[in-house]
User: Fold Vitamin B12 ABC transporter, ATPase component BtuD from Pacificimonas flava.
Amino acid sequence: MSALHVEGLGYSAGGRALVTDASFALQPGSFTMLIGPNGSGKTTLIRLALGLLKPDTGTARLAGEDVQRLSMRQRALRAAYLPQSRPLAWPQPVIDLVALGRFAYGGGPGRLAGDDAIAVEKAVAACRLQPLLHRSADTLSGGELARVHLARAMATEAPLIVADEPAAALDVRYQHEVMQLFANATGAGRAVLAVVHDLTLAARYADRLIWMSEGHIVADGTPADTMTAERLRSVFVVEADVAVGASGDVSVEIAGPAA
Ligand SMILES: Nc1ncnc2c1ncn2[C@@H]1O[C@H](COP(=O)(O)OP(=O)(O)OP(=O)(O)O)[C@@H](O)[C@H]1O
Assistant:
């Protein structure tokens, strides 16, 4: 069964269509990246897919269930969401923020035992948060805080992780670590959908790219099949050199804006 299946999603606001007729399905074990220019509708599509916005048309199903019919807890058991804007920086210890990932199971800050404790411990180790565990979250750097939110999402152990620009605040080492973390999660059978702006990371780590432009899905396939100089020109208005190696690995170098 698909971890997420959206069909014909459409949504308008402010007198214009932000997402039009979007359909795709995510299978367990797949690492999919949603890419497209600023304002092309990626966050809106994700929010529709997770039931955080009500679509004008179409349906979204999480593990087979219509997302609009699920309670918050039922949704949290099926999908972990790492939003783009993460203003949460209360004067709260890091460990408590990560523990929030367990609320759907009845766990949480000060209530970590059994499976909840194990899941939090694993997420803390994977995101290298041990030295920060007892720091107050409002004293962290942007990148440190981003890793805390990532650990909260990982601690849910939900079969689907949806992350909106998870690497945006991270230095180059942690960008790769986060991508590797997601790749490991998919290796363990979870599905990951991540919005990513860095096309080098996208080409390197994604199994599949869903390309958005002006609210439409304009391409959907492997990096080797979809990452072409022509598509980069039409979607991002840049000139690029793209090379596909014998094993299907893709390297992309952006030369600059297209004329
Ligand atoms: N409630 C709303 N009313 C009017 N316009 C909206 C509303 N929500 C989003 N938009 C607009 O819809 C477009 C798509 O927004 P969205 O956040 O989905 O884009 P995005 O692809 O995620 O962009 P970015 O890469 O910049 O994060 C933008 O032009 C945004 O200003």
